[in-house]
Every structure is written in C-alpha cells, then in structure tokens.
Design brief:
The structure is a single chain. This protein is mostly helical. The chain has a single domain, classed as Arc Repressor Mutant, subunit A. Helices cover about 50% and strands about 5% of the residues. A two-stranded antiparallel ribbon has the order 1-2. Helix 1 (about 10-20) packs across helix 2. Bound molecules: FE2/S2 (inorganic) cluster (FES). FE2/S2 (inorganic) cluster (FES) binds near residues 6, 34, 35, 36 and 39.
Amino acid sequence: MIVCLCHGVSERAVDSCVDAGARSVEEVGLMSGAGMGCGACHCQIKERLACGGCPAVELLEARKSTQSVGDTPLSAV
Ligand code: FES
C-alpha cells in the first residue's frame, strides 16, 4: 500500500527506513522522500514509526516467546 502519494512511497519502504534506524518523520523523509511534499501522509508515517517498522517481525518475535510444544511451527506461518 502506498503511504506517500506525492512521492509514491510504500508502507514497506517506510518500514525499511524504520528498520534501518529512522526515528522521525524527517528521517523517513530524508531516507525515502516520504512526507517531503504536501504532508498529508505524516500521520501514517508516525503510525509506522510507532509500530517500530515491519509488524510481521514483531508478531513473529511475540509468537516465538509464547510458543509451546504442539503449536504450529513458525516455518508454517
Ligand atoms: S502524500 Fe506524502 S507528502 Fe504528500
């Protein structure tokens, strides 16, 4: 899904910036161009920043810590 229409930046690209260390809308903008136009996407960028990047990684980490014997193997997720 596209987060920044002005610069055609996807959620994945914003998450990659966050994973690479971006901690503000400005840093995401410098790394990807997102948010450097009209500013309408700033809320979405802030949401991605609050998530800490790719939510799938967090879900896998949470699942690893709570998984018990008999659960579906992580490789099947
Ligand atoms: S939609 Fe991102 S700067 Fe305009």
